[in-house]
Each structure stands twice: as C-alpha cells, then as structure tokens.
Amino acid sequence: MKSPVLLFLAVILPGLVAAQEFLTKEEFKEKVWDFELKGNEMQMKSDLPVVLDFYATWCGPCKLLEPELSRLQQEYEGKLNVYKIDVDAERELASFFGISAMPTMFFIRTDGSYTYILGYRTFDELKQMVDTFLFSTQRSLVSFMSEE
C-alpha cells in the first residue's frame, strides 16, 4: 500500500506547482507589460489581472508562499494569472520594480493600476487582496492594510 505522503507527492503536488508560470524578462514583456517600449506608463498586455510573485530559490518565506499562490491560481482559474519571477535570474526586472525583500507580490489590474505587499501571506489574506483590489470596483486597500 502506498503511503499518503507518496500519493500526495505523486498526484497532488505536480498539479499545484504547474498552476504557476515562471517568467523570464522576455516572457514578462510578451505576457504582462513591455516596460522598455512603454516607459513608466503601465499598459497591460494581459486581458486578466496579474499577481506577480518576486521570489528567490533560497528564500524560506518564498517557499512557504508557493502552495498558497498555487491554490490562489486554482481558485481563480481563467480569471487571474499568477506569475513567478526569480530575482536572481531576472535581476533587471527585480531592479526595475525596486525589489529589495522577498517575497514581494504585485497585484496588477487590467488597467495597469497596481499595489504590492511584502512577505508571506496566507491563502485567505491573498484571496482578500485579490477580491479587494483586483475584482472590486473600489480601489482602496485601507481595510486590508489596516489589519497588518
């Protein structure tokens, strides 16, 4: 009989990891925003809102965040894209966004407006960010940010 841990690793884990897409600078420019052509004005290429996770492979909180973001991607499948950017491999993108701590997550609406948060967040906190900022007609994050 297979152990529950092996079953989880073999069946469930690959589905969770596959939910997030890892982007290079060139893929970012194709799928999200070509910042080199548009300057500082963010003009989204994506028809869906985007969550950008700036992470490092050596970052403990980033590793803890990965299943939370996978669950978020599954919860909003077809309504939201979750992309991961490795700050060590994509230094130019990290520098452009001013990343100095990981994880840093940007929540970007299709109109190009955005907000960001630093550090690990639970699934419920991430879901609240998505619902409050990306899918609400109100742009205020006062209620979410005041809870911290």
TrEMBL record:
<dbReference type="InterPro" id="IPR036249">
    <property type="entry name" value="Thioredoxin-like_sf"/>
</dbReference>
<feature type="signal peptide">
    <location>
        <begin position="1"/>
        <end position="19"/>
    </location>
</feature>
<keyword id="KW-0732">Signal</keyword>
<feature type="domain" description="Thioredoxin">
    <location>
        <begin position="12"/>
        <end position="135"/>
    </location>
</feature>
<keyword id="KW-0676">Redox-active center</keyword>
<protein>
    <submittedName>
        <fullName>Thioredoxin</fullName>
    </submittedName>
</protein>
<keyword id="KW-1015">Disulfide bond</keyword>
<dbReference type="InterPro" id="IPR017937">
    <property type="entry name" value="Thioredoxin_CS"/>
</dbReference>
<dbReference type="InterPro" id="IPR013766">
    <property type="entry name" value="Thioredoxin_domain"/>
</dbReference>
<dbReference type="GO" id="GO:0015035">
    <property type="term" value="F:protein-disulfide reductase activity"/>
</dbReference>
<keyword id="KW-0249">Electron transport</keyword>
<dbReference type="GO" id="GO:0005737">
    <property type="term" value="C:cytoplasm"/>
</dbReference>
<dbReference type="Pfam" id="PF00085">
    <property type="entry name" value="Thioredoxin"/>
</dbReference>
<keyword id="KW-0813">Transport</keyword>
